[in-house]
Amino acid sequence: MSQAEAFPKAAEGKLADTRLRATLRGATHTIRDRRTAVVAEVGDWEDLRELGRTVKEEALADLGSLLARFEERATAAGATVHWARDAAEACRIVADLITVTEVVKVKSMATQEIGLNEALAARGVHAVETDLAELIVQLADDKPSHLLVPAIHYNRSQIRDLFDASIAAGVDDDPAALAEAARLHLRERFLTASVGVSGANFAIAETGSLVVVESEGNGRMCLTLPDTLISVVGIEKIVPRFADLGVFLRLLPRSSTGERMNPYTSIWTGVTPGDGPQAVHIVLVDNGRTRVLRDPVGRQALHCIRCSACLNVCPVYERVGGHAYGHTYSGPIGAILAPQLTGGHRSLPFASTLCGACYEVCPVKINIPEVLVHLREPPPAEQPVMGAVSAVLSRPRWYRAGLRLARWFAAMAPARRLPWPLSRWTAVRDLPRPEQETFRDWWTRTHGRT
Amino acid sequence: MRVGLFVTCVNDLLFPRTGRAVVSVLEHVGVKVEFPLDQTCCGQMHGNSGYRKKAGGLLDRFGEVFAGYEAVVVPSGSCVAFLRERHPHVYELSEFLIDVLGVEDVGGVFPHRVTYHPTCHGMRMLGLGDKPVRLLAAVGGIELLPLPGAAECCGFGGTFALKNAGVSAAMLADKCAAIRGSGADYVAMADNSCLTHIGGGLTRTGGPRAVHYAEILAGRP
C-alpha cells in the first residue's frame, strides 16, 4: 500500500464498524461537552492559553540549557539521569535497569511511543499496566486508540466479556463491579512489585522534579510503593520553572477530562531517604524531537501537553478512532506529530478537513491546521493535474477557455455517475449542473467590460 | 471607495446566481461595484493541498488584479480566510455590509423557513460570528430555524472529499440528517465550496435546498 493511501484505507475499515462509531461518538461527545462547560467557567481562559503557549515556546527555544539544568538538579537530588537518542536506546536503558520479571506501570504515552512493553517482554519482563483503560487494552492484546482514554473503542459489555475471560470470571457489566475486579487484580501487583515505570507530564528544570497527573490513584501507587522508579520522559516535557505548573495544572484537567482540578498530582524530586523509591532513574528521550525542533512551523507540535481535547472535537477522529492513524499519537495532534517524529505517515496531514475545531480547543494554542497544511506533500500521481490547473488559473485567457471546457464537461457528464476518481464524489453527492451562463458572461452582458 | 467583486472561480463556473445576488445586494444599498475581468482563483485549493509555490503565485496575481481597490467583496468565507493575511482589504460579504457599511437590513424579502450552517473557515478562521445570521434575520418574511450541531464540519475539506472519501461521506450524511431535522425549506451558508458538497448530498438524498445566504438577502417580493 502506498503511504498516501494508508489512512484512507484504514479509515474505510473503521467506518464500516457501526458499533465502534456509536461508541466513539458517545464517548467523544460526552467528554467534549464536559470540557466546554468547565472551560466556560474560567474568565481568563484565553489569557491562560496564551500563557501556556508562551511558556512552551520559551522552553523549546532554550531546551538545551533547560535540559542540562534539569539533569543537574535531578542528579543533585539523588536521581540518575539517562539520555536516549531513539526508541531502541531508551528501551535498552530501561531494560538494563530491571532485574525482576514483573514491573508495574503508570499510564504513559512516551513508553507506548518507544514500544517499551514489547521490548521488556522480549527480555522476559512483564510490564503490568495499572491504568484501568490501559489494563483493558493490555488484557485484550490490543493497542490504545486515544491519548487519554486508551480503551475508548470498547463499550461496557465488551469490557465485561474481556474481564470474564481474563481476570474476573463471572463478573457482570456494572461499572462499579468492573472497577472492583480491576482493583483486586491490581492490588496484589502494587504490593509485590519492586520496580515502577512511568512517564511524566512535566519535567521542571528549576528543581529537577517530575510531575505525573492522573485520575485513579493507581499511578500514585506505582510512583510510591516500589523501591525503584524508572521514568521515561520526552525532552519536550521540560518547563522552566516550578511556578509554570500553576498555568498547566489549570489548563490540563479542564481540557482533558473536563475536570476542574486533577484528582492525583504526584510531584517528586530525586530520592527522599526513607520515603518512596530509593532508586530513581529518569530516561530523557529524543526519538525524533530535535528533528521536529528544526522546523520553525512544525515545532509547535512539541508544545503538546497530551490533553487530547483535539481528538474529542475532531470530526475525523470521531468517525474512525485512533487505530486508523497507525501511530501512538492519533487524532489531529497525531496527524502533525507522527509524520514529524518518524519522517513517514505521509497520509496523516491529509486526514483533516482543516475545520479548525482542534486549534480552537488546544490549551497551548497549537495551530494544528497551519501545521497540517505545512506538512502536506502532494502525491506524485496528482501533481501533473494540479500543475495544469494552476497554469490555467494563472492566465485569464486560459481560464476563460477552461471555464467553457468545464461547463461542457459538467453539462455532458452524468451528474450521479462520474468516472474514477470523480466517482468518489458522485458516490454520495450529485454534481451541480451549470447555469445558462458563467458569472463573467452575465456581468459583461449586463454591465459591459469595465 | 472603489469596491471590487471577487466572485471566486467556483461561483463563476457553478454558482453565477450567487454572484448576481451579491451584485444585486450591493447595488441595492448604493455601492457601485466593479468586476475586474482578469480575476481567476485565489489559490486556496493549491495552498491547502501542499502546492505552496503555485498558491503563492495565484495570491500574487490576486494582488495585481485588485491593486486599485480599497475593498474587495468575496462571497466565500474560505477564500477570504486564505487571502486575508496577504490581502487585508478583502471582506467576506457580511463583514463588508456590517463592519464597513454598517448595514444589517439590505431590503431582502424571503418568506420561507431557513436554517444556517456556519461553514468552518468563516466561523473559526474569519470569526464571522453571527453576522450572516443578523443579515438573514433582517430579511422580510423569513423564519430562521436553529440547526442542531451547527458547528460540526460538513466533511468537504476540498480535496479531502476525494482523498478521504469515506470519512467525508460519513460526515456529510450526519450533516444532511441534521439539516433535514431542522424543519427548514432552505439551508443557507457563506461558502459555495461546502455548498457543492452539502447541496449535492441533499439533492441525492432529499431535503431542503442549499443556497448561499446572499441569494436570500437578494430576495425580492
**How many helix segments of chain A?**
22
Please describe the biggest sheet of chain A, giving its number of strands, its sense, and whether it closes into a barrel.
6 strands, parallel
Rg estimate of chain B, integer Å: 17 Å
Named at the architecture level, the CATH assignment of the largest domain in chain B is 3-Layer(aba) Sandwich
Number of strands of chain B: 8
User: What is the arithmetic mean of pLDDT of chain B?
Assistant: 97
Overall body shape of chain A: globular
Main interface pair? A-B, 62 and 64 residues
Q: What features would you describe in this structure?
A:
The complex is a heterodimer of chains A (450) and B (221). Chain A has 22 helices and ten strands. In chain A, α9 packs across α10 (175-192). In chain A, the strands form two sheets. A six-stranded parallel sheet of chain A has the order 1-10-7-4-2-3, with helices on both faces. In chain A, 50% of the residues lie in helices and 10% in strands. With 221 residues, chain B is an alpha/beta fold. Chain B has two domains: 3-100; 113-217, Rossmann fold. In chain B, 48% of the residues lie in helices and 12% in strands. Chain B is built from twelve helices and eight strands. Chain B has helices at 9-13, 16-28, 44-48, 52-65, 77-83, 93-100, 120-125, 131-137, 160-163, 165-181, 192-205, 213-217, and strands at residues 3-5, 33-34, 71-74, 90-92, 113-116, 143-145, 186-189, 209-212. Chain B starts with a strand and ends with a helix. The relative contact order of chain B is 0.16. The interface between A and B is large, with 62 and 64 residues.
